[in-house]
Design a protein that fits this description.
The protein is 33% helix and 24% strand. The protein is α/β, with parallel strands linked by helices. Bound molecules: alpha-L-sorbopyranose.
């Protein structure tokens, strides 16, 4: 695995747990962790249970005792690492969004197409049991013809204008701001749940705080500000409407400025005979409305998604005993290892990641061209 910050910790936990709770068709060995600072990567490898470490990803990719490379770095290094790993015959799991640009994502999807190894993007929210159940209900026709999607991803860790200029706030490292960091999850989920690709968008992007203190020490989400200031070069909030194939329409909002909203990833889908609604802050529940029921008693019902018949849940606790954020990564490893070992292409594939990247690029292009924003004029 390359990288050991927030995502690296979540993935390490998943690699360690997946084979202990699920019957995997292959054994997981946590062979090596890679990071640039020897002191820090050694400590992280010990803490998270990796058997060895490397300080150069090229050395990691060249190792013959490694079959899978898991990329948990900022977006600017996804393409070179993933392409080199695929060319070296490895299987690759890459954090989202797949890349920083469409050109990089295209090169990655092409490398994946020509590779002997499998590849997958880490859109972990597909592995929330309630959302996998929502997908199952939609695919089984329980919502009828899908018409509308409403997706919000709301966080608030940038509200303080003195929060430092971490890598996520610089376009050359992150590609975009709330759009790619959060909106990418909503785009992937909306396309996954409906089974329809987004075909056009009309967008508005904004940056509320143009300059921030340069970070002192850590550049993670818990960074502190140091001396000097630098420019924020990404969006702070992204709002857009979308058309999907098959006449479906959607509205999306991604922000890290929604005071009080810590990780509110919400999605609602309306069909001709029913709806689902979900909020990851209550991730063990799915709201389901069945419009074919008697109107006198029909209404959104709260399904507690903890039954052994629910996706992934047979590996965990008795009904009513809840799971959390980290389980989504454990399920992701379970699905990835199963697909690799059985030779079935893991999803979301790099081609799926490229489609999300194209939507992100279309959102930016629309916002730059004023999108759907017609000036309000006086008559
Ligand atoms: C930070 O905004 C972040 O860690 C995202 O990068 C993740 O994808 C999301 O799951 C939680 O928030």
């Amino acid at each position: 695995m390359v990288g050991y910050a927030f995502m690296g910790a979540a993935h390490s936990h998943a690699w360690r747990t997946a084979g202990r709770f699920f019957d995997l068709p292959a054994a997981v060995e946590m062979t090596a962790l890679c990071g640039r600072s020897e002191e820090r990567v050694r400590a992280a490898a010990e803490r998270y249970g990796w058997a060895s470490y490397e300080t150069d990803w090229r050395a990691l990719v060249a190792r013959e005792d490694i079959d899978v490379v898991d990329i948990c770095t900022p977006g600017d290094s996804h393409a070179p690492i993933a392409i080199a790993a695929l060319e070296a015959g490895k299987h690759v799991l890459c954090e989202k969004p797949l890349a920083n640009t469409v050109a990089e994502a295209e090169a990655m999807a092409a490398a994946a197409e020509n590779a002997t190894g499998s590849s997958m993007v880490g859109f972990n929210y597909r592995r929330v049991p309630a959302l996998a159940l929502a997908r199952r209900l939609i695919a089984a026709g329980r919502l009828g013809d899908i018409r509308q999607v409403r997706a919000q991803y709301l966080q608030d860790w940038l509200v303080d204008p003195d929060f430092p200029l971490v890598w996520r706030l610089r376009e050359e490292h992150a590609g975009s701001g709330a759009l790619g960091d959060l909106g990418a999850h909503s785009i992937d989920l909306a396309q996954y749940l409906t089974g329809r690709p987004i075909t056009s968008v009309g967008a508005l992007l904004t940056t509320f705080v143009a300059e921030r203190p340069l970070p002192a020490g850590s550049s993670g989400l818990s960074a502190t500000g140091g001396a000097g200031r630098g420019e924020v070069t990404v969006d702070d909030a992204a709002l857009f409407t979308a058309r999907f194939g098959g006449g479906v329409v959607g509205v999306f909002e991604a922000t890290r400025f929604a005071g009080g909203r810590k990780n509110a990833m919400r999605i609602e889908v309306n069909g001709s005979t029913g709806s689902i609604a979900f909020d990851v802050e209550s991730m063990n529940e799915l709201a389901f409305y069945d419009g074919t029921e008697d109107a006198g008693t029909a209404g959104f019902r709260r399904v507690l998604v903890t039954e052994p018949t629910h996706p992934y849940m047979d590996a965990w606790w008795p009904p009513g005993h809840l799971i959390g954020y980290e389980h989504t990564f454990t399920h992701q490893v379970r699905d990835f290892v199963t697909a690799v070992a059985t030779g079935t292409g893991p999803r979301p594939s790099f081609a799926d990641g490229l489609q999300v990247q194209r939507v992100l690029a279309a959102v930016k292009a629309s916002a730059e061209a004023s999108g759907v924003h017609t000036p309000v004029t006086e008559s």
